[in-house]
Amino acid sequence: MSSSELINVNTVPDVDTAIEQWNVYQRLCGKKGILDENDFQKIMIKEKDPATGEYVSVEREFKKKSAWQKLGRAFNVDTRIVTHEFMRTKTGRINEAYYCVCATLPNGRSVESDALCSRSERGKQKVSDHTIISTAKTRATNRAISELIGAGEVSSEEMTAEETANKMRREHNKKMIDVKINNEEFTTGDKLQDVDYDPVSLNYARTIKASLQQTKSIINKVSMKNRLLVLIENGDISADMEDKLLSFINEHCPEAIEEESV
């Protein structure tokens, strides 16, 4: 089965067809396919050793922008920008860029994915505004194509950002203003205007918003989820709340916190 035949499948495939489709993708990505060593970047990551249970450094290969461009052309993927947003400093310099990109196959199947790029990342402090913008767009485009045809693989551009985020967390995120949770930041349930929202989750969401506002960051689902993980890592929010708050942010934010000021 060719890649053009693969993308024209409009029905739910049986097991044999699904395996054949996956094999087509694997062959395209292999050494005898359309990708070469220049389309990959080797990055050291932390993985849990199943034998010892400890985290160890392992070198893995991740697809670069060029790889996703080649695969996008092979599968006739069309991409378009759904929306974008820039957060600027007082001098007009772009501090953060956000993009949402939609990737579509010829059979009509589509996926929307978004991504951020911030000057708080390692190596991004002195780059041009264009670099911040193009990096955010590249990450969103790569992610959309990946989720559409590549089983949600993470691109090298995203891994570089994740590596930076992990380093920032290990250093307790010194460039961010610490937001400690205390009783003054909470509103009792009887004072909430919208009873449809879980009051505990809503108060945590407001705390996350306050943290983003103090660092003059873009406030959307992606930035809120990223900041939540940072606050959990720093011990400001209990790890037991992670799943509940991620679900709340996905379903209600930022609309819920826009109704009232923090």
Fold and architecture overview:
There is one protein chain. With 262 residues, the protein is an alpha+beta fold. It has two domains: 157 residues, Enolase-like, domain 1; 76 residues, no CATH class. It has nine helices and five strands; from the N terminus they run H-H-E-E-H-E-E-E-H-H-H-H-H-H. It has a three-stranded antiparallel sheet with strand order 3-4-5. Strands 1-2 form a two-stranded antiparallel sheet. Helix 3 packs across helix 4. It is globular and about 50 Å long. It starts with a helix and ends with a helix. The relative contact order is 0.10. The N terminus is likely disordered.
Q: How many angstroms does the end-to-end distance come to?
A: 56 Å
Q: Evaluate the radius of gyration.
A: 21 Å
Specify the number of helices: 9
**Average pLDDT taken over every residue:** 74
The biggest sheet amounts to: 3 strands, antiparallel
Which structural category fits the helices and strands? Answer: alpha+beta
Shape: globular
Number of domains: 2
CATH architecture of the largest domain: 2-Layer Sandwich
* Lateral arrangement of strands in the main beta sheet: 3-4-5
Write the layout of secondary structure elements.
Blueprint: H1 3-7, H2 15-29, E1 40-48, E2 55-63, H3 65-74, E3 78-88, E4 94-104, E5 110-118, H4 129-149, H5 156-170, H6 199-214, H7 221-233, H8 242-252, H9 255-258
Antiparallel strand pairs: 1-2, 3-4, 4-5
Helix pairs in contact: 3-4, 6-7, 6-8, 7-8
In short:
The chain is an alpha+beta fold and about 260 residues long.
